[in-house]
Structures are given as C-alpha cells and as structure tokens.
Amino acid sequence: LPMAHRRIAAIMLVFLGASAIASLMVSCSPPEKQSLPEAAKKARVIVVSLQGYVGCGVDAEILRQPLAEAVADLNEPVDAVVFRFDSGGGMLNRVGLLSDMIHGYFNEREIECIGWIDRAESAASIVALTIPDLWMPPEGVIGAAVGVRETGPDIWETLPPQQQEAIRFMVAAAASRGGHDREVALSITLPDPSSSGTTHGARVLTGVKASSVGLARNADSLEDALNAIYGSDGWQIDLQRSERIGRDVEKAEAARVQLTQLYQRLDGAIEAAGAGNAGALEQADDLLGDLLALATVEDPAVQRAIEFLGGFQRVTRAIDRLEALSDETEP
After folding, report:
1. Contact call for residues 185 and 129 (beta carbons, < 8 A)
2. What is the DSSP string of 67-79?
3. Which tens digits make up the pLDDT trace of 75-103?
4. CA 56/CA 49 separation, integer angstroms
5. Which three-class secondary structure state does DSSP give residue 233?
6. CA dihedral sign, ordered 203, 206, 212, 217
7. Which helix (H) or strand (E) holds 202?
8. Residue 43, C-beta contacts closer than 8 angstroms, at least 6 positions apart
9. Helices marked H in 108-214 — which ranges?
10. Do 112 and 78 meet the contact criterion of CB atoms below 8 Å apart?
11. Structure pTM?
C-alpha cells in the first residue's frame, strides 16, 4: 500500500483497538448497585406507667425531667409516648400542672401522645382527658370526677357545690385540650346512684361504654392497641427508657406507702401513750425519729410523697403532740 494509505490503516487499527478495549472495559465493569428499599422503620414507643396517685408519683414534678431526657436522644428518636393509667385519683390542685405538661409538651413536638386506661378515677380521669388518643380495655374504667376530702380513716365527704363546679370547669378544659366531646366528658362529674365505694357515688364509664360514646377506643391489651395503630410489625417499646421514667414514679409511691405506715404507727403509739402506756411513749419517739429521717431525704420523689400526705405541717403536728405528752408524763 502507498505510505499515506498505510498511515490511515494504522490509525484505523489503533482506533478500532481502543474502541474494543473500551467496550471490553465497559462490559467487564461491575454493574451499578441497585438501591435496596429501606427496611420499614418501626415506631419507637415509650410507655410511662402512671400507677399511683396524682400529686405523688403521678406528678409533673416527677415526670418532667426524666421524660425530657428520654426523648432527647436524636439518634434514636421517639415516635410515641403512651401514658398508662392505673390511678384511683389524687390531689386536684396538682391536676393542672400535669395537664399543662402533657398538653404543652406534645403540642410542640412531632411525637404522638396516646393514653391507655386500665383505671383513671377522680383527679386521674381529668388528666387523662388531656390526651387526644385514648384506648381502654373493655373492663377499664374512667370517671368519678368529683371532689372529696378525707375526714377520718376511710371516711370521706364530698366538697361543697361551688368547688364541684370548679372541678366541672377543669374537666371541660381538659376535654377541650384532648379534643373530646364536652358533654360526654362532663357526664363523669354527675352522680350515679348505682356507683359506690371508691367512686363516691359518681359516674364511671367502662371501656365498652367509653367506646360507644366516642371517648376512647377499645382493645384487649396495649399491644393490641399499638398493633391497630402501627401494624403488628410496625412498633417497638423502648423498655430501657420506659423503665427509667417509671423509676421515679415507683420511688415516690414507695415512699408514700412507707410514710403512711409510719404515720399510722405513730398515731397509734401516741394514742396509747395518752392512755397511760409508758412504753408507747418511747416507741412513739423512735417512730418520730424514723419519720424525720425519711422526711429530710433530699430526693424529689420522697418530697412529693411528704407533700402528698400533708407536708411538713403534718410532721410538725406529730412533733407537737409527742412533746405535749412528754411534758404531761414528766414528774
């Protein structure tokens, strides 16, 4: 071939060779990875056990800090908080603080607030109404939203009509926050002749009845309720964080039980000493020492229990009674 033609042929061979190599490189290169669908994210749920009395373990002062800490972890964000009620009531003057905490906290965050009610009576029923999404087992109860005061051991009297009207206002306000029907909510403040015992003659709604009037939804268990909300594989309970919050509630309630027993034993010893039992005076003095040791523990849970049972005024009254008896028995 002429020189010019040879050069053209060489150039074409080089071009064809490069093209073949490029084609080979393309054909041998690994295929692009196909993005796999992400595993369905399970809703992370915290269960706050409200087993106790409003104003003692079931209190904004006890719950606020551990709840804030529990939802602060942005690496494992919380999707829902379930408040699980098993409460026979408590202090009406502590209802507003707890209702404010629940409403304000979840109104400002993208965290679902769910209520599971085994029992929510009196003050606890008002707190529960703050929560929009209420669930109950068929045999659960909510209601008895009336004001009573203890006038003696297991002796109760209802508060005057003016104070009962204030309670009705609290019920209506809580129902408004939770988006519940006002008239349905106010029905739990009405007297019910068929009610007795701890409900003090006031109306309570079972889970079945609450469902029929649109106040709550029914499920046989909390797990069934979460299945209905998120699907059977769509949720998981964060046990560690749930237990961390419940620890202070349990501590306050345990202190309440211990204090109640101390007060009862102290009252009995002082009464016996007043009747002339010399040994009872020494026993009362020992019990008062135990009471003061517990009352001066610097722990918010213990201090809430002290306040729930009458505060330091009750401790002071016990001291005064014992001192008066000591003066009487001195020669």
Report:
1. yes
2. HHHHT--SSS---
3. 889 999 999 999 999 999 999 999 999 99
4. 13
5. coil
6. positive
7. none
8. 79, 80, 230, 234, 235, 236
9. 123-128, 161-178, 182-186, 207-212
10. no
11. 0.81
